Amino acid sequence: MSYQENFQDLFIPGVIGLITGLFIVVFVRAIEFSTELFLGNIVGYIPPLPAGEGGSTVYHFVMERPYLLPLSVAIGGLIVGIITYLVPEARGEGTEMAIKAFHFRLHLGLKSAVFKLITSAITIGSGGVSGTEGPSALIGGSVGSFVGKLFKLDDHTKNIALAVGLGAGIAGVFKAPLAGALLSGELFYRRDFEVEALIPGFIASVTSYIIVGVFTGFDHMFKVPVHPFKGLSVPLFITYFVMGVLAALVARLLVYAFFNIHHFFVNLELHPALKPAIGGFFTGILGMLNPLAIGSAYGWIQLIMLGKTTYLTPLHIITGVLMVILGLSLTLGSGGSGGIFGPCIVIGGLTGASFYYVANFLSFLPHSHIDIASLMIVGMIATLAAAANIPLSTLILVVEITGGYDLLVPSLIAVSVAYLLTTDITMFPAQVKSRIDSPAHMDELKGALLRTYRVADIMTKNVITISPTDPVLKAERLMAEYTISGIPVVVNGKVIGMVTGRDIMKVPISDRAKVTVEHIMTRNPVCVLPDMSILEVLNIFISNGIGRAPVVDNYENKNLLGMITRVDIANFLAEQERKKLAEEHDTALE
């Protein structure tokens, strides 16, 4: 490996992971401070924490002033609204912004990371339904973009640095380095993978994970009491298949609610700075009715897994699915700051718990093998995979957040079903189907077009021709009239030569009416066939130093069928690019 490769594949990802990890530590502490400031001081409520964040199995639920919760979230929303009005890049869902920046090669500076950290901490700490992973993705992406610019990387490598940083951010906050590395390549596409981001993504994600772990501990996010996996029976398969179907339905409901509420706030005739406060106020009302609809709710999910449901009835849990969906949609749809990953995990966990209670009531579950924690974890992973189009990363995530492989096979069943039932939706509209659909890979798109399309698809069929006995003056006038720089010389439909503007320039002006074309033409010119790819034609142009060629039926008869030039190829590529951008614009409007 060369010095340059070591620098780009080892050192730079390490720097990205280091800086991202430090940012995530500050972000976690900022959320703790904001939670104490808003929920603690105003509402008199401190939410439970999951085991990996220092949570205890013993939790005493107290909310001294629940009537002030709408005020707390509204104040947080107002502060965030003012900040995001002044700094627009801090608004909304962080992952979506990072994905868009990747595809359009937009620069994300540290300013984006700092303000996203502040606004997301305020949103979550004041009680808004939001997640830490979206802001962490944008923070990491901003760090990657900044480091790429700092070390003067080329545009393509800077884009990979952004992707690597995104994965490192999620790896740090989730304490899931492998899943973070995979997200570096998977999150940008619905049906593809950014392979170049994988290896540097591993380095950056592991580095970020270590930095965060040194300050906050290396425990898995959730303590999960599940039965060891001893094999797959028909009842178990059916159970997890149904779990996948339920996750797909919930993901569809989530996408529908989120974007409809978002469109409502976009069209609401109100100052942008006030909209997050309105959304926050109604989110606070939901939180008064159900504590699951406050903040990240990871701690409540942990308590439900452990069977600590002193303060939560099955009705709280079942209705919590809808309330968290509405809370997320109101919080982020109104312009609040944060992420979608966390709420998706909470919604999926509540869906799994709801399934457990309902199936138990109907005596549906195979009791000896299924517990509530297993269904909750599988529900989390399946719902996130369906809503975000990231099946591979979520399957690895289940191992890293639980610390074991016991739920890997059940998760594979549920994730596959949920993913296949939701191929037409996503919480991230900036995702594209594949690399070839990404503006960041426009050069690859052009290469694919050059290999796919044939000469017959773009050649000019109505060709201006000339006879070898015609005077050079006629050829000059034809070129001027039709704005062309070369004319094939034809006898009885057969190409015998080619005359160009350079050939004409060699004849004195006074002699152009006397000298015939046959005296200056290039005999047996390079010709191409209609079934050749455009790439083959470009290679012929380059190797022969020409810019045009007659298209003939075969190399023996050379009967003229058309004409193709470099200009024709350039115009074709430009038109395809214009159509692609128009389609992306129409999709964005939808």
UniProtKB/TrEMBL annotation:
Cellular component GO terms held in the UniProt record: chloride channel complex
Subcellular location(s) per record: Membrane
Membrane topology of this protein: Multi-pass membrane protein
Database matches in Pfam families: CBS, Voltage_CLC
Primary localisation category: membrane
Entry keyword annotation includes Membrane: yes
InterPro entries assigned to the protein according to its UniProt record, in alphabetical order: CBS_dom, CBS_dom_sf, Cl-channel_core, ClC, ClC-type_chloride_channel
Transmembrane feature ranges: 12-31, 67-87, 159-178, 198-222, 234-259, 279-301, 313-334, 340-365, 377-401, 407-428
CBS domain location: 459-515, 521-581
Alphabetical list of SUPFAM superfamilies matching this protein: CBS-domain pair, Clc chloride channel
Keyword Transport: yes
A GO molecular function held by the record: chloride channel activity
Protein name per the record: Chloride channel protein
Annotated source species: Desulfurobacterium indicum
